[in-house]
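pls read this stuff:
=====
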Amino acid sequence: MFDVGLLELAVIALVAVIVFGPERLPVMAKQAGVMLRKARAMANSARDELRTELGPEYSDLELRDLDPRNIVRKHIIEAMEDEDERPPRQLELAEGQLPPYDVDAT
């Protein structure tokens, strides 16, 4: 989720033992777990409330769908797949043939 490897977790645990001490560390870990559960419950509640307010059309809505990066990526992929929006192909010139000259463009 956060791209934290085993070495980083070991360093975090070592710093936590040094800062909080071995006797307070289990209590702090329990409090962190409770806070994470409450945060997850609040996020799920917000998602469910948003789904309810938006109606049945958005019943499969996920919060990651609202990420601007995903929205842009989705629209770029749709534009690339849309064949009607493609620019016209350039004509190939035969050997020795000069390209068309546009007086207004020069």
